Amino acid sequence: xxxxxxxxxxxxxxxxxxxxxxxxxxxxxxxxxxxxxxxxxxxxxxxxxxxxxxxxxxxxxxxxxxxxxxxxxxxxxxxxxxxxxxxxxxxxxxxxxxxxxxxxxxxxxxxxxxxxxxxxxxxxxxxxxxxxxxxxxxxxxxxxxxxxxxxxxxxxxxxxxxxxxxxxxxxxxxxxxxxxxxxxxxxxxxxxxxxxxxxxxxxxxxxxxxxxxxxxxxxxxxxxxxxxxxxxxxxxxxxxxxxxxxxxxxxxxxxxxxxxxxxxxxxxxxx
Amino acid sequence: xxxxxxxxxxxxxxxxxxxxxxxxxxxxxxxxxxxxxxxxxxxxxxxxxxxxxxxxxxxxxxxxxxxxxxxxxxxxxxxxxxxxxxxxxxxxxxxxxxxxxxxxxxxxxxxxxxxxxxxxxxxxxxxxxxxxxxxxxxxxxxxxxxxxxxxxxxxxxxxxxxxxxxxxxxxxxxxxxxxxxxxxxxxxxxxxxxxxxxxxxxxxxxxxxxxxxxxxxxxxxxxxxxxxxxxxxxxxxxxxxxxxxxxxxxxxxxxxxxxxxxxxxxxxxxxxxxxxxxxxxxxxxxxxxxxxxxxxxxxxxxxxxxxxxxxxxxxxxxxxxxxxxxxxxxxxxxxxxxxxxxxxxxxxxxxxxxxxxxxxxxxxxxxxxxxxxxxxxxxxxxxxxxxxxxxxxxxxxxxxxxxxxxxxxxxxxxxxxxxxxxxxxxxxxxxxxxxxxxxxxxxxxxxxxxxxxxxxxxxxxxxxxxxxxxxxxxxxxxxxxxxxxxxxxxxxxxxxxxxxxxxxxxxxxxxxxxxxxxxxxxxxxxxxxxxxxxxxxxxxxxxxxxxxxxxxxxxxxxxxxxxxxxxxxxxxxxxxxxxxxxxxxxxxxxxxxxxxxxxxxxxxxxxxxxxxxxxxxxxxx
Lengths: 271, 621
Hints:
Protein name (chain B): Glycosyltransferase family 2 protein
Strand content of chain A: 15-25%
Organism (chain B): Arthrobacter echini
Mean pLDDT of chain B: 86
Low-confidence stretches of chain B: 567-573
Number of strands of chain B: 28
Helix content of chain A: 40-55%
Shape of chain B: globular
CATH superfamily of the largest domain in chain A: Spore Coat Polysaccharide Biosynthesis Protein SpsA, Chain A
CATH architecture of the largest domain in chain A: Alpha-Beta Complex
Largest interface: A-B, 58 and 51 residues
Pfam family, one (chain B): Glycos_transf_2
InterPro entries (chain B): Glyco_trans_2-like, Nucleotide-diphossugar_trans
Keywords (chain B): Transferase
Number of helices of chain A: 9
Low-confidence stretches of chain A: 193-197
Oligomer: heterodimer
CATH class of the largest domain in chain A: Alpha Beta
CATH architecture of the largest domain in chain B: Alpha-Beta Complex
């Protein structure tokens, strides 16, 4: 008998695993590594999961004592998806296992993008570096993880077999909770997908052309800044952060500070 | 947002007449009229990378005035259209003498693309211009590559137009007419070597050098004109279909054209069935030599034995190594090996060096390269010198700049310096010396024709300098280098590869791979005396002097992205390393240098503890 999903596919309706009907086992088992992280960092990670478009997950917060996270525990205490464990949990009966260091935030479509990334690459494990975080995020095929854990070191195994992939966390929408969310200029699949309202515009209209040209200029400006940052990285020069950045800006004089403020205000109004 | 246009030097005069006279549409955009005397008019509220203009028109009363305006334009951002009007100025209308350089400038002004026809240049000297000089000038403007080195001073003549392929690389190569074959007794011959067979023996005059006459044998292939056919344009990731060489392409002995080569670039391989060329063996040999110089990956079979003799067994073997099932990085590496061998044999200067050697004539020497190696790290000196020692290029001089220490301070440094077998010059500079000045100190000690900057902590292929010197020779670029394509991320213990756009002219190359002529560097004023970004400053200087920058392949350079060091001296990851994971085309676990680099892994390998998997045994306690 033809399955209902096959019939739907014939109509052009394709559902990804993150969009499928719920089953007894959630799609993703999230492990939040709390360890010595501050309570706010744990809360920020949990908050980002709650605002994710994909909600088919269970969460194990590992290594956080009750004394260090009383408010967070109280906050999500009634949500059956959240569990608090003193030590590592064995892989849950989920399709994927996602490890997030506390303080790592997911974007609205990060879970979907992450699942897509592991499926499209055929990797057993996709690991993401997040600027500002000392540990990486990692997404595993749970069945493979469980098998490898039973027979040895999973990390060593995937490295040897060449089925581990590293990506920049920003490309999946991951970011440190103390830093702004990454701007995604090039939409990489679900990481940048939104509900679209399609508006047909006449490219011959002068106003439409001006609007697109302005967007192109904005993208080119961002690209130029990104290139500058990349070259600085290649040269081993770290960008200034925090107080050092403020000080560097102030050193350029009041005209520069005013100009930057005006530009930022214009961008805010136009966005 | 409406784009604003800018008019500089127009005062309150009208702008529209100039625009319409130029045949441009005069869009009714708001205009900013900017005075060159009012400094405040050049101050902007917005950052430079957000300054966009519609039309940017500059009017000057003279060439001197126009040049004086350049500093004002430095921070003006970008414009949709730029117009420069120099009143009363008609460049290259007249010249004291129509030297080739003057004609090149005139051709640049006059050359244009004619719709339906192609590129046309009209050089009207107003007075008589030498046809050959005018043609050379016109071609110079049509050619993307810069002027190349030629044959090292060798002058070649031919007795028959059928031999003109032997003149590739000689800018004043000549068809030997009767008057050239019989100069006046008190005059010299115009050439050093004559290809072909003059109808009569050359007259000899005591004290005058008589050219060597040489007739190519049936298996002698001419040089390849690398100004047109070169590795430039090679694509590491060719996603088209496999192409095939057909006999019709070589009938008549016509050489590979730039258009034909461009059409092959997107094909991952070119199939060559030697059995189809039984009656076109010489033509096939010539074509294979050109394809090999261009680095075109080939799947060849049944090559006639004499074709193998023509192009050389080593090249035949290199052609035979291609495998359609191989990974792109392997395909590129084999192409690099092929084009390297082919350039050593068929590039004009190298081809004539081989011929002169066979004729027991004096062979022009290869240019000396000075390697500039500056370091603040005594512990890196030994390894850095070892990298240079494995370079295949000769002759080589190493200028080792010790920044803040001397060999006497460190036994390991002294040992490395004493045991280095090669031409080594050690320069010491105080620790407080600005990096750019440290490089200048080393540059002053350099003696070579070329200067190659190398880093003390990255990895280089054995042919790094050779490939870049040849790239400089065939591209005519003032500055050559590679991009950072391969990176070893120490904290993750992985090697990544970024997408490459292939061999091309560009505006950026990695600082650790820069090669340029020493004279050019001195003309540019040397390295800027700054503490960092010296490479970016050099790139800017080269481009400001209208020089070309050429990027060769990236397989000779593996960048070492170090882990940071924590307070306990252990290696940890650098918090901003994620940028190195953006736009990654391929990645490999561990230390995996590209095929062109043979290197041992660094002393510390292994993933930082912080970045080990959460599920690594021993972690989950």
